[in-house]
Amino acid sequence: MFSFEPSEEQKMLVDAINRYAKNDLRKLAHDADEDCGYPESTIDKGWDIGYLQASIPEIYGGFGDRSAVTGVLAAEEMAWGDLAGTLNVMTPGLFVLPIYLGGTQAQKEGYLPDILKGDWRPFTSALIEPYFDFDPRELRTTAAASDGGYEITGTKSYVPYADEAEAMLVFANLEGQTQAFILPKGVEGIEIGSRMKLLGINAYPVYEVNFSGVKVSLENRIGGPEGFDFSKILDASSVALAAMAVGLSRAAFEYSRDYAKEREVFGVKVAQKQAVAFMLAEMATEIEAIRLLVWEAAWMLDRGLPEASIQAYLALSGAVDMSMMVTDRAVQILGGYGYIREYPVELWMRNGRGIAMLNGLAIV
Amino acid sequence: MINFEIPKPIAMSNNALETVAVNMMRPHSRYFDENEHEIPWDYINFMHMAMVQTGAGSLAPKKEKSEKPTEKRPPIGYQRLTFMLEILSWGDVGMYLSTPGGGLGAAAVQAAGTLEQKEKFLARFSGKKPTFGAMAMTEPQAGSDTSAIRASAVLDEETNEWVLNGEKIFVTAGHKSLIDSDGFVVVWATIDSSAGRAGMRGFVVEAGTPGVEVTKLEDKMGIRASDTASIVLQDARVPFENMLGSTEIVRKTSERGFKKAMATFDATRPLVAATAIGVARAALEYLKEVLEGNGVTIRYAIPRQKMTNIEREVIDMEVMLRSAWLLVIKAVWMADNGIPNSKEASMSKVKAGDIVNKITQKSVELLGPLGYSREYLLEKWFRDAKIADIYEGTGQINRLIVARQILGYTGRDLR
Lengths: 364, 415
Description:
The structure holds two protein chains of two kinds.
Chain A: E1 2-3, H1 8-35, H2 40-48, H3 68-81, H4 83-102, H5 105-117, E2 123-126, E3 142-146, E4 149-160, E5 167-174, E6 177-184, E7 190-195, E8 206-217, H6 230-262, E9 264-265, E10 268-269, H7 274-303, H8 308-333, H9 345-354
Parallel strand pairs in A: 2-5
Antiparallel strand pairs in A: 3-4, 4-8, 5-6, 7-8, 9-10
Chain B: E1 3-4, H1 8-34, H2 41-54, H3 77-96, H4 103-112, H5 115-122, E2 133-136, E3 152-156, E4 161-172, H6 174-178, E5 184-190, E6 200-206, E7 212-217, E8 228-239, H7 256-293, H8 309-336, H9 342-366, H10 368-371, H11 378-386, H12 395-407
Parallel strand pairs in B: 2-5
Antiparallel strand pairs in B: 3-4, 4-8, 5-6, 7-8
């Protein structure tokens, strides 16, 4: 049966996140982007809503069942508040979810309850690499068998909280397959570069990290000697980021719509001019269209359908173009004011371009 | 709970419908495209037999009957129609438009008619012979601007008949409704030209009515298997009861009847969008087939920087197609569940009209000399596609509707 009605629990979660997005993220987003960071208390507050904990079963310290559909509902709502704020709050998931989806029993028990039951703590992952044609399925960072374990060599970029992470998952190319390895803080051979400066999401601290023959023991390979299926992680990341793109775009659309209804031009409201009205109509239509694509992909992931992987990819592909179009138009609709940092649309446009290259910075 | 599972009754019919499309439509597509004014009677007779059961021809679904009367089954009538229309249009959208049944004419009766009128006029579509219904709205000087319609209806109080005068163009299945079957056309005319839209009413004009003449059959770019007629009414008389709606509203000019009919369009708009998607899917699938046959693989999930142009185009088209389809599904799910869906209905039409043209145009382009050749059906689907962004509300009108919805504007606020 088709249905487009979230469950009661999902609605409650989305409502809670909406309040946080409106009362906390929206209020602080501008300054956070200018000052390159959010107050810790804000990030803690977002973490305490429990969106990640609601997605992990009790035996591992959570209180729910994983659902990509719930995850995309949550991700959209929080990103509607602010993309960088959302990425901050969800950072521990970068470490937790791959372990939950592909780790050994020991790995799950060893890490998850500790992280999920407590306050927000910096656990992270390193996937993206500084090459124009970065490909998560053909990584240049390598893992080679060595000394009864593995050795990691390469360079990662966009690693969140690398400077203070208590542990980090590194994705590396092991004999042609993307696999993941747990690196505790302070392990030898890791060189953390200075914090990266980006086009957008300035409130999200990310770093370049260099790995020179970093040694990893066998038990720290995710999934043990057989490893794990990376495509599950990639799919979950794709729908997460696509959902955030929807939230970001919705914010830009609503703001520019409301502005156009107020601003006067030639004796009427700007929104009463067909050119502008049509821009808004197309923005709304595309947001709705891509949201449904994201929902369907997430639903397929939850059902374990074989087509899920391709659909997750298509959803993100659509979201990349949709969010660039919508956020660009939002700036355009505000005219000169759209260009001024005092108004949120230019930040949303800078963030909107990020959807194309930030896959790996979020996962639900 | 959010759910994308195709309801079982629909999944089951889909197989049968695809067989119809493959066996009864595709093999004859080229013939009826090249012989525009011939009628695909084999298909029509077959569909008439098959559809008398479901009553699906009227674009207004019968309520699903539950086996256990106490069991509450979720309504899926519009969803069912959507899948059916998409698959038949994937077969041949022009032939689909020649499917017997009430079409938009019956939909208008459903939306604006009284109970008596529904009983009187709709029964014929499940009778012994294939029968057609049509809607006549457009005039030479009035398309998108329905308030500019000039066809008039004057009440002859002595005979209690409406006297209709006017010229209608672009009436889909007009000839089949009035000449090839005992059908009818719902003619929109004004009972008070000073009242604008508030004076408009629908009049059921049955086949055989004196003063009604089919004056022209258009030669079209595509959907050639569908007849597109001009109809002239010259002092055509229809019984008083043929005016759709309660007799109370005869004197009072009120927009209620008109609005009710416009509400039909909220339901039919996504269905028309579904037919566009069928054409788009046919084109994209064909493109992929030919590419595969030529050793071109589409690698999903690689970065855009590594993709060939063809891979990028195909992937973009897959996104367009699937997202357009989901917009339709959501709109009809809302219709089935009684949730007002004007915005979603128009969104689905905007998107579908847009993507069917992009996809068919791009597919012809990518297949080069083969795409352009009449040896293959792809060039026909390019021609069939274009009307989708024009009829049933142009893409521009539907953008206007979406804009008014999202802005909270009336027609006066945003023209």
